[in-house]
Every structure is written in structure tokens, then in C-alpha cells.
């Protein structure tokens, strides 16, 4: 079984370097290396800044099997800004990675603030080998520390200050079989922002929110939702959870993304019950593979 790790990325080479450092030195990545590919899905870093990201990729490409591609999303980002939204069109980068770049059996999505646990990949492999219809969403915590990515990224996992760990939510690292992702059209490309896409995709695939609760607990007045039929799995194992650093430099505070969240929630509710998406997408996004 092959797994592609798809990193949703936008113009943060320092965090990219630190994520790759931790993954290589402090997880079981090396043990499973021959089954893993790392795809950096750049949703539109300004072209004048790409060289800094390429420096990081070139630093790691001999140790980690990396593909790095860049999307031309300037028009979409302008549309978001004109609407008063934050310009992070990550669904397009995710779909290109899954549909055009990946050839793996399983897709595992990740974000730039991710900290992988020591036996992370073993747990992912075991679950997807046991259950072909698994929709795996580890429990999520945020490690709230302003200095983490600048000063503490090279501290072994067991020495991280877990007192700063607080309950989080959302996907940073959902994984599922690629065939199912393709069958529903992937992420909904009407979302020109990343917020609420996790909720939308999880409900479409499992009829559960991204924390494992039934969607009807949150939206009891909505009609019955016919989901795709995957099995939502959220292990409670102590050595397997999703840890992100949620106060790193450049992170968008919740109050600043309020309008984008509201916009995403409205899109989600307006498309309730529709499983397959993007058959008539109004956007055409070009991309360029820069490494790999």
C-alpha cells in the first residue's frame, strides 16, 4: 500500500523546513519511507517568494521523496479579497494533488503547523490495511506556543510541553483511499477559502462532523443526509493523535477569519445532500511541477 502525504502549503519556508525536520528525525517515517511520498501542494505563493521554498525542498529532496508543485490562483485570490475573505484557495491545490499528481492508494492530508507523533505512520498504515473504507481523522490538539516553530521545532516529541496541549478541531490530517476521493470530485471548488471545507467533506463522506459527531447534532433541522458511506474512525490511542502548533507566526487568528468561516458555512448548508462536486467547476487552475 502506497500513501501520499499532501501538504497544503502557502509561502512559509521556515515552517516547511521544521515540519520536514521533525518528520524525518522524530517519527517512524524512515521505517515506512519506501511506501510514502510527500507532495507539497502550493496554493499560490507569490512567484517572487518561491525560491525560498525551493531552497528548503532542495535541502531535503535526497532524504525525503518530494514533489513540489505551484498553482496559479491569482484570480481566485483576488476574488476572495474583493469579497472580504482571506485568500487561501487550498481546495484547488488539494484536488490537483489528488487527481493529477498522486498515484497512491491512500491520500493523507496535512497542514504546515503539523507535528507528527512518533508512531504516526505505523498507525495510519495499520488502520487503512484493516479497513478499506476508513475515513481516518485522529483526535486533534493544538500546542499553543508562539515560539514553537522558531525555537523548539528540534526538541524530541516526548520533551514537548504537553501542558500547552488543548483540544482542537477540524482536519489537519484526514486520510482515505484515493479512489473514494476521486469518485466524489474531491474538495468543493466553490470554496475559494479553506474554512468549512473540512466539515463539508467529512459530512459528505461519513454523515459525521470532523470531530466524529453526527451532523444532525449540529444541524437538526436539515433533511436526511445520504453520505458516501465511509467509516469515520477516530482512535483514542495515546500514541496517535493530531498535534498542531496554532499560534505560530503568520497563523490567522479566529477573529480575523470570521467572515471567511461564515462564508464557508453558508456554502456548506446551501449544498447539503449533494455528494459529488466539481463536475461544472467555473475555475480552471493551471499548475507547474517545480520539483519531483
How would you characterize the overall build of this protein?
- The protein has 292 residues and is an alpha/beta fold.
- The chain has a single domain, classed as Spore Coat Polysaccharide Biosynthesis Protein SpsA, Chain A, CATH 3.90.550.
- The chain is 33% helix and 18% strand.
- A six-stranded mixed beta sheet has the order 9-4-1-2-3-12, with helices on both faces. It has a four-stranded mixed beta sheet with strand order 5-11-7-8.
- Helix 1 (13-26) packs parallel to helix 2 (50-60).
- The protein is globular and about 50 Å long.
- The chain starts with a strand and ends with a strand.
Question: Can you summarize this structure?
Answer:
With 292 residues, this protein is α/β, with parallel strands linked by helices.
Strand elements, count: 12
Strand percentage lies at: 15-25%
Helices and strands: which structural class?
alpha/beta
Question: What separation lies between the terminal Cα atoms?
Answer: 20 Å
Q: Secondary-structure element order, as H and E?
A: EHEHEHHEEHEEHEEHHHEEHE
Shape summary: globular
Give the count of structural domains: 1
pLDDT < 50 stretches: none
Supply the CATH class: Alpha Beta
The spatial strand order of the largest sheet comes to 9-4-1-2-3-12
CATH architecture: Alpha-Beta Complex
Overall average residue pLDDT: 91
CATH superfamily: Spore Coat Polysaccharide Biosynthesis Protein SpsA, Chain A
Taking Cα atoms only, what radius of gyration do you get, to the nearest Å?
18 Å
Helix content: 25-40%
The CATH topology assignment is: Spore Coat Polysaccharide Biosynthesis Protein SpsA, Chain A
Q: Give a short account of the largest sheet.
A: 6 strands, mixed
Helical run tally: 10
